[in-house]
Amino acid sequence: MKIFDFLKILFSFSLPWLSASSLANSDSQLPEVACRYEMKVTPHGKFKATSTKAWFFWRKPGMVQTQDADGHYGEIWQRTANGSIQYRKLYHVDKTAIEYMPADMPTNNMSFDWIKLSSMLDQQELHALKPVKKTRVLDRSAELRKGKVDNRDIEVLWLPDVSLPASIISKDKTGRAELRLIAIEPLSATHRKPVDIEEIANYRHIDAADFGDMENDPFVKKVMAFTEHHNH
To answer: Is CATH 2.50.20.10 the right assignment for the domain spanning 3-230?
Structure first.
């Protein structure tokens, strides 16, 4: 499970991601950061195993990028001058990018809000949770908020100085899911850098609209087999 898939499950009550008010905002005042997050899912039931996955998250004006800890897979969102969002799935080992054009996103059940991408949560989602206390996490000021959403107990530890969550915990009758910030530093100081846009430009690029017609392509076969395996 990827970071933003995790967040969509937790906050399915929120307004549609694409809104005029959100597009009117800007991420230019948000600090450029490099983060390492860990996602842990613990299902109820003694025969169900806990799964843990680490991810990197990078943010700078006009760009949000994620990558798994192994560096095999990632995603990148780039905001264009007219406010539309270019989204790519990145398969680094194969040097291949699958591109989703803005016009094709409704067909693929996709819509993105730039402020939410940049901060993982929006103000509506935060305000739906009750402030509990102020504390410190990773030597930063933090605010603990709690609430109940769709029969799930939600707990968010928010870092206001960087507008990112230090942790998000969800608990319901099926189990517990947690996203936790392991490390954060300025993007300029990090040793683990996002993949350069210039390097991605040299990848093989596949339009997502053409993906279904390429079943004989070796890369497409591999991706489809991996997706089917994880859907079962």
So the answer is: yes
